[in-house]
From TrEMBL:
The keyword Signal applies. Residues 272-428 form the MurNAc-LAA domain. This is N-acetylmuramoyl-L-alanine amidase. Keywords: Hydrolase, Signal. InterPro entries: AMIN_dom (IPR021731), MurNAc-LAA_cat (IPR002508), N-acetylmuramoyl_amidase_3 (IPR050695). Residues 1-32 form the signal peptide. GO terms for molecular function: N-acetylmuramoyl-L-alanine amidase activity.
Amino acid sequence: MASRANLLVLLGCGPLCAAALLCALMIGPSAAQVAAPQAPASAAAAPSLAAGSNFPVASDARLAGDARQTRFILDLDKPVQFRAFALADPYRVIVDLPQVSFTLPAGIGTTGRGLVKAFRYGLVMPGGSRIVFDLTGPAKIAKSYVLEAANGQPPRLVIEFEEIDRTAFVQSLPPENRPELRSAITDANAATPDASAAAKPAAPPDKRPVIVIDPGHGGADNGTEAGGNDIMEKNLVLTFGLALRDRLEKSGKYRIVMTRTDDTFIALGDRVKVARNESAALFISIHADALKRGEGDAQGATIYTLSDKATDSDAERLADAENKSDAIGGVNLADEPTEVADILIDLVQRETKTFSNRFARVLMGEMKTTVRMHKHPLKSAGFRVLKAPDVPSVLVELGYVSNKGDLEHLVSENWRNRTVGSMAQAIDTFLAKRLATAGPGK
Ligand SMILES: [Zn+2]
């Protein structure tokens, strides 16, 4: 949360616009489509989505000033909320807007002025547009604001760039955006996704948010097992996942996609792909943990989010165990395609993380009223199945099959119904907030 707060302070932008943006990102398509927009292609793609809509229209844009101070002005038909921030290597400024219909003069942005080398714009996802400025060197956003219509002028978005040196530029970036921490992403840039990766069939007519439910393990991978009897994690979590699906489908508000509905092995990477291909609003992986004999006793449900650094050794042990799934199922990790590379993917990832954490907290708040929770119910570690950069994802360990009380719960229909109910409530709370913020007029 701290990093997001820093980012907002840096950007001088209220939480409302950030919320709108984050929501827009949440319903976004795969990261391949979040590639820096190419003006002609994206502008051409926009009308189908914008047809008959009430989206703000950007009708003209211009640059003024010199190599010390440059001003960008975008004419609009109504004020919009926005967020602007800088990126290094190469020097860029990104402006995220709600979905805007761009009717700018052809060829605009291909040549720059002052600190702006060029700019591109377009729709990057349903509900979200973006302008990317390529800078001639390090510059800061001295001011950014939206003017109401006045004196015969339409509403305008104004971004003022000011020359600074590299040190000041780098220091002005939030820590996670600084170049030295982004080497992995810079490396990934070498592998630019080709055009076909960005070309995706039109969105299905069903506009409901998609929730992907991922019952862990399956097939050759049994998951944890309760000693002495035939109870296997893969079966417990499948039964639970199907019950959660049925509950959520009843409301009619969501489209539910299961990563598996039977005893089939699914590689971790393929589970992530399901979430990404569906542009899911939420990915929930269901598991049940176990401690080995002699490792003590633990009980209660735990909710995990993705992190490079495990919260504690238990979380690390668990992530290692869950990540072994592919090896058990015979998947050669070396054959896994590398993550989709994109210069903006890190931004999306950070925002996804914020949403994953938010959902985890909402979920804990609901679950703890009906379900026994672990004494430290919120944790994070490097779970491979949570790595969709653009889909908020959590992994729920429903309890410990190694604990007698938990096991009794896990096989109880009554317990399952109550737990499914609290999860459905949390999903409603979380997504209702998102839909309200992303609704028309925002
Ligand atoms: Zn598991």
